[in-house]
User: Fold Macrodomain Ori protein from Thalassotalea algicola.
Amino acid sequence: MKTSIRIGNNMFYGDNSFPHGISRSGHFNKRESDELMIYGKTFEGLCNGSLAPINDEEVKFIKAVNSNGESDLYPVNLWRKYLAAVEKSRIHHGFSMSNGKTRDPSGNDLSFA
Assistant:
């Protein structure tokens, strides 16, 4: 990725959302996962305010990520893809909690056993 955004001081693995790592999540190709690992700490810091922007591209990154409009900056689109994957990974279905029994409003068991 050709960018003037600084490289993160540590590798970014996204462990909170992807316990097996970004590269094994199935949401990103090899290039994207490598770039997220390298720049992810910086992207995260710029978004949450723990890092101050040091150049024009980082200022543009912050403005574009915080807006809802389209962006032509690749780092913005990559970070948005990461955020969308995080949201998608948090969606859980309650089907696994079912014991297979259905009850009518009066409380009678309607199982077909």
